[in-house]
Specification:
This protein is elongated. It has helices at 4-10, 40-49, 65-74, 87-99, 110-118, 150-161, 186-197, 209-219, 233-243, 257-262, 276-294, and strands at residues 14-18, 24-25, 35-36, 53-57, 84-85, 104-107, 139-142, 165-168, 174-175, 182-183, 201-203, 226-230, 246-250, 271-273. It is α/β, with parallel strands linked by helices.
């Protein structure tokens, strides 16, 4: 008798892999300076060989997707530039849909600004305006900006108080690392701006519906035919479960058996594996079922 999870994996047409704690482990954002986790490269290759589409989605915006892809390839994980997603990609899609060509104030360096420009978003140059209140921004987007000091806080707060909506690429407090806590920067800045202005913020990266929509857009799938593989119960599993995707957690990063046991019902993953080789073994069984179903012979 085939288990339900094997049947669901057999129906999967696309897989999203988290990066930090899932494919690589490092003390820098988006796997920078890290090492590939055991079985990660092989799982990527298996996914591609099976005919499924894949993407790697990190909540980090310190680097451009193409730079992240190049780093992963240097570690032996073969992903194309356009298979790497960040919250900046999701942000560009949301901003274009909501605000068209209206000006946006963005913080986060090249990992945010270049992606928005590539998608045709009109960006505010603070040097061209006396104050944030006069810049005309309809939205303020905060990404990974380690140079966010008082002048930027002042300008951004003025824009928000003048009516700009506040968006954040990720408000996750930390992410998986090798030896020390990797603290999140974007959420720290955004919470400060919210404190100063009294305005709420909207997250566009994981675990938001906007991130999940971007995953399905990139994969050309529906949530029901998508597997989300991550190491964070809230960010990846919760996002997948709310959308109706298959939620998988690998215990090589943030999540532990204890955190999963303590998770709310809506965040509990559909499957938990200790490593990528264990996930690959499940897919070997799922692919046998997929072939049997395709040929009209179920087990």
């Amino acid at each position: 008798m085939t288990s339900d999870i094997i049947r669901r994996l057999a129906a999967v047409d696309g897989i999203m892999f988290d990066i930090d704690g899932c494919l690589v482990l490092s003390d820098g954002p988006s796997g920078r300076g890290g090492v590939a986790l055991p079985g990660a490269a092989e799982m990527i290759a298996r996914t591609r060989d099976s005919g499924r589409r894949l993407c790697a989605f990190t909540n980090g915006t310190a680097q451009r997707p193409s730079d992240i892809a190049a780093h992963l390839r240097a570690l032996g994980i073969e992903v194309a530039d356009d298979e790497v997603l960040t919250p900046a990609v999701a942000a560009a899609r949301v901003i274009r849909e909501r605000y068209a060509d209206a000006p946006v104030l963005a913080y986060g360096g090249d990992g945010v600004v270049s992606v928005l420009r590539d998608h045709g978003i009109t960006l505010v140059d603070p040097d061209d305006h006396a104050s944030g209140a006069q810049c005309g921004a309809v939205a303020v987007l905060v990404g990974w900006d380690t140079d966010f000091a008082k002048p930027k806080l002042q300008f951004a707060a003025e824009a928000i108080l003048a009516g700009a909506a506040l968006y954040c690429t990720s408000d996750a407090p930390a992410f998986a690392s090798q030896d020390r806590l990797n603290v999140g920067v974007s959420g720290f800045i955004t919470a400060g701006l919210s404190h100063v202005t009294g305005r709420p913020w909207t997250v566009l990266g994981k675990p938001s519906e906007y991130a999940m929509d971007t995953v399905c857009w990139a994969l050309g799938t529906t949530p029901a035919r998508t597997l989300v593989v991550g190491d964070d119960v809230y960010l990846e599993s919760g996002m997948a479960r709310r959308a109706g995707a298959v939620a998988g957690i690998v215990l090589t990063g943030m999540a532990t058996r204890a955190t999963i046991a303590d998770a709310t019902a809506e965040d509990v993953p559909d499957l938990v594996v200790d490593s990528m080789p264990e996930l690959a073994a499940l897919f070997a069984e799922a692919d046998l079922l997929r072939l049997a179903l395709a040929t009209g012979v179920d087990r």
